[in-house]
Amino acid sequence: MTNRLYYELNDLVTLKKGHPCGENEWKILRKGADIKLECQGCQHIIWMTRMEFEKRVRKILVDGKWISIVHHHPEELD
Ligand SMILES: [Zn+2]
Q: What is the extent of the structural domain holding 47?
């Protein structure tokens, strides 16, 4: 089993802690060693390392449903 997490640009995610503006919905604007996220409440931009992001991310919006990102495996790696 791999612990790799699956997320793509423009995916919407929630984090362990929401933004101080009261929103906890973030859009992924950049992937790589650093992840760029946009708060969907106030459009504030934050950056964090990929390691920090993968520690903090909780849910991802897939087909209109919020699911736990650790269970989101669209491409199996068998
Ligand atoms: Zn905000």
A: 12-70
Span 15-73, pLDDT tens digits: 999 999 999 999 999 999 999 999 999 999 999 999 999 999 999 999 999 999 877 77
Residue 50 lies in a domain: yes
C-alpha 74 to ligand 1 mean position (Å):
29
Q: How many domains does the chain have?
A: 1
Ligand 1 centroid distance, CA of 18 (Å): 8
Q: Where are the alpha helices (DSSP H) in the chain?
A: 50-56
Ligand 1 centroid from CA 63, angstroms: 23
CA–centroid distance, 33 to ligand 1, in Å, is: 23
Contact 23, 40 (CB under 8 A): yes
Q: Is residue 76 part of a domain?
A: no
CA distance 63 to 47: 26
Identify whether 2 is part of a domain. no
